[in-house]
Amino acid sequence: SRNIRLAVIPGDGIGVEVVTEGLKVLDAVGTKLETTTYDLGAKRYHRTGETLPDAVLDELRGYDAILLGAIGDPSVPPGVLERDLLLRLRFELDHYVNLRPVKLFPGVETPLAKSRPEDIDMIVVREGTESLYAGAGGVLRRGTPHEVATQESLNTAFGVERVVRYAFEQALARPRRKLTLVHKTNVLTFAGDLWARTVDRLAPEYPGVQTDYCHVDAASMFFITQPERFDVIVTDNLFGDIITDIGAAVAGGIGRAASGNINPDRTAPSMFEPVHGSAPDIAGQGKADPTATILSVAMLLDHLGLGEEAARVEQAVADDLLERQTNWTARSTHEIGDDITARVAG
Amino acid sequence: SRNIRLAVIPGDGIGVEVVTEGLKVLDAVGTKLETTTYDLGAKRYHRTGETLPDAVLDELRGYDAILLGAIGDPSVPPGVLERDLLLRLRFELDHYVNLRPVKLFPGVETPLAKSRPEDIDMIVVREGTESLYAGAGGVLRRGTPHEVATQESLNTAFGVERVVRYAFEQALARPRRKLTLVHKTNVLTFAGDLWARTVDRLAPEYPGVQTDYCHVDAASMFFITQPERFDVIVTDNLFGDIITDIGAAVAGGIGRAASGNINPDRTAPSMFEPVHGSAPDIAGQGKADPTATILSVAMLLDHLGLGEEAARVEQAVADDLLERQTNWTARSTHEIGDDITARVAG
Ligand SMILES: CC(C)[C@H](C(=O)O)[C@@H](O)C(=O)O
Ligand SMILES: CC(C)[C@H](C(=O)O)[C@@H](O)C(=O)O
C-alpha cells in the first residue's frame, strides 16, 4: 500500500493529547505512514512571535494531509491564533468545504428526550473560505465614544457555487437525497440571494436531489425539535460554525464531533480536526475524549481513498461507543485511544 | 387609571389570530384601552405596493405602545416585508433593546431530557438597531460567474454601550446578577473587540454583577447542555436572533416565546411581539398557540408601568400552562385565549 505523508499539528491544550491517540489508531490501520510534527500554536507564538511562518506554510503544502488537534490558549489575545494560524491554514490551503457529520451513534446519550439515532444523521457542508471569516472590516476612533467597528461578509459566485455543488454530490450519495440550504435570506439579502439563486440554478443538474430552505434561526430550533428534518445541509461559514456546535450537542457532545477542512480540487492538502477546542481547563489531565479526533482520522483515510480503512476505524468507534453504554467505566484519554486501537488492530 | 393608546399591527398569517387573543387578555386586565389597528403586511403590500408609508410611521410614533402579531408571507419576495416593515419599525423607533426572556414554565415539556424549570430561566438582551441588520452591503455582477455579494456589520460605541448598560441593569435586578456577553470575538475581531471592551469598561460601575464571556457557537451548545449557566445574556442583533430561537426550543417551543422591542429612552413607542413568525402553513385554522403573544402583552404592561397587571397576566399564563400538563385537551387559539382571559378576569 502507498505511503501517506502526514503533517501533524497537535496545537494547544488537549490538542496534544487527542492527536496522540489519533495517530495510534492510524498506525493500527496498517497504512504506511510518515508523519512530521509541527509545533505551531501558543507555545511557539510566545517563544518566537510566530503563528504560521510562510516557510512552514509552504512545507505543509507538500503533504498528503494534515491532522490538527486544537488551537487556542487564554494567554494569547483572542483572534490571533485563530485568525493567523487556524483560519489562515483553511484559507491558504483553500479548504472551501468544512465537512461536519452530525450523527448520533447508537449507545450515545443525547440531551434530547425523544430523539433516536435514526433521527440524528446529517452532514453539514459548511463553506470554509468566505463570508465574515474573510477578516474584512475595520475600526475608527477606537476606544472613544465615537468608535465605529465594521465586519464585512464577502461572498462570491465562484465560492458559493463550488461548495453548493459539493453538497449536492454529498446528497446524491445518501439514501434520502435531501439538501437544505441554511441562511438568513430575509436579512442578509445580498448574500442570501446569491446562495438561494445558486442552489436553485444548480438543482436541475441533480434531479435526484430534493432541495429545501431554512432560515438559520429556525434551523437552530429544528436541530433540537425535529433533527430528522435534515439530511445534507449547505451553509455559510458563520452559520455553519454555529449550527455544527448545536449538532455536536444534540449528537451527544463535542467529544464526538469530527470535521474535515477539505480542498476537493486537491490543489493543497486537506486538514482534519475535531470540532472541539483546546479546552485549557482540562488540558494535561488525561480527561479529554479522543473520539472526535479518531473519527476525524477516519475522514482523513476516506479522503485519501482508503475507504475500507476509514470504515474500519468508524466501526471501531461505533463499537466502543456502544460498549460504553452497557459497560461504562471512567477511562483516560489514552485508555479510550488504546481500546479503539485494539478494535481496529484486532 | 390612565388610558393606554395602543397601535395594533396583526400582520400576516397567524399574527391576526394570536393578536385577537392578546387584546382579549389586555381588555380583561381592566386598563382603559384605546386601540387602533393598522393593516400593514402582505395584503396591503399586494394591494398598494406599500410596506410602511412614512405617514403611517409618523402616526405610530404617537402611541404608548405597539402590539404586533407576525409579518411575512411566501407570496412576497424574501426580505421585503422583513426589511421594509418589521426591521424598519425596529430601527426607526430606535428599539435598541430586543428583550427576550427564555424561561421554562413549570408544567411545560422541554425537549431536553435533564433540564428542569430552575435550569432554564434567563433573559436575552439582543441589540436591535445595528450589526448585520443595518442592511448595508451590495452586489456586483449579479447573476454572472463573477458575482460578488457583501453584507456589512455596522457597530458603534454609542449603540453597544447603551444596550450593554441596559443588560447590566437587568442583571442587577435579578438574584443571580450574572451577565454573559455572547459574541464571536475570535473571528469578528473588530466588532467583538468593541463589545468585549465595552462590557469590561462598564463592569466597575455595576460591582454587584459578575460578568462572563462565551463565543456564540459554544453558547449555542450550552443552551442545550448547560442552560443553567446563563442568567442575563447581552449579544449582537444576529447572534441574538439565533440564540433566542434555541432558547425558545429548549423552553418548550416557539409558542411560548415572548419579546419586546424596547426603546428604553421612550423617545418612541416600544413594540411587543411573539418571537414566532406568521406560520402560513397553519394560518386561519385556529391552531396557533396565542401564549407567546399573551406573554408579550404582559411585557407591554410592565413597560407601561403596570407591573401589577403584568404579573397578573404572567401568573394566568403560568397557571394555564400548569393546568395543560395535568389536564390536557386540544384547544383552539381562541379557547386558549378565553381560558387565560378568564383567569386574568377572575
Ligand atoms: C476557533 C474558531 C476560529 C473556529 C471557527 O469559528 O471556525 C472553531 O469555532 C471551529 O468551528 O472550528
Ligand atoms: C423576521 C426576521 C427579520 C426577524 C429577525 O431576524 O429579527 C425574526 O427572526 C425575529 O427574530 O424577530
UniProtKB/TrEMBL annotation, chains A, B:
<keyword id="KW-0464">Manganese</keyword>
<feature type="domain" description="Isopropylmalate dehydrogenase-like">
    <location>
        <begin position="5"/>
        <end position="340"/>
    </location>
</feature>
<protein>
    <submittedName>
        <fullName>3-isopropylmalate dehydrogenase</fullName>
    </submittedName>
</protein>
<dbReference type="GO" id="GO:0016491">
    <property type="term" value="F:oxidoreductase activity"/>
</dbReference>
<dbReference type="GO" id="GO:0046872">
    <property type="term" value="F:metal ion binding"/>
</dbReference>
<keyword id="KW-0479">Metal-binding</keyword>
<dbReference type="InterPro" id="IPR024084">
    <property type="entry name" value="IsoPropMal-DH-like_dom"/>
</dbReference>
<keyword id="KW-0520">NAD</keyword>
<keyword id="KW-0560">Oxidoreductase</keyword>
<dbReference type="InterPro" id="IPR050501">
    <property type="entry name" value="ICDH/IPMDH"/>
</dbReference>
<dbReference type="Pfam" id="PF00180">
    <property type="entry name" value="Iso_dh"/>
</dbReference>
